[in-house]
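Let's study today's protein:

:::
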Amino acid sequence: MRLKTVDGDLEVRSCLGEISAHTVDGDLRLEDVGGTIDARTTDGDLQLDGALQAVQVKTTDGDLVVRVQPGSKMDREWSVESTDGDIRLTLPDDFAANLEIRANDGEITTQFPVTVQRLSEGRFSGELNGGGHQLHIQSSDGDIRLVN
């Protein structure tokens, strides 16, 4: 499924498969979705909730909220990015990934134990639950929170 709006919000519910959704000057909400997700907003918030396998999400001038439901499995690298907004990523307790997290002008917090491999100002990498596929999370101007 491919969806795009200009100057309007977009909402998708209860879909499974390959979903590509883009908005310009509008919010994007994907609820109870599953599969492969490519979602982008310009000047809008993005919310994603589902049983996910592959994720590429990005906001420009908006907050990003992703809720990964239990049973989700990464089958490849994921990317979660906000240019000017906060990121909140809710993960199941048993979710496994290699993390690469960067907050250029914001704080990074996590409720998960992470085996840290590299740590520097506004950036760290490490393993979550023994590691797995790469999970890139980046905010240029906003906070990043990993919660369960």
The first strand starts at residue 2 and ends at 6. The mean pLDDT is 95.
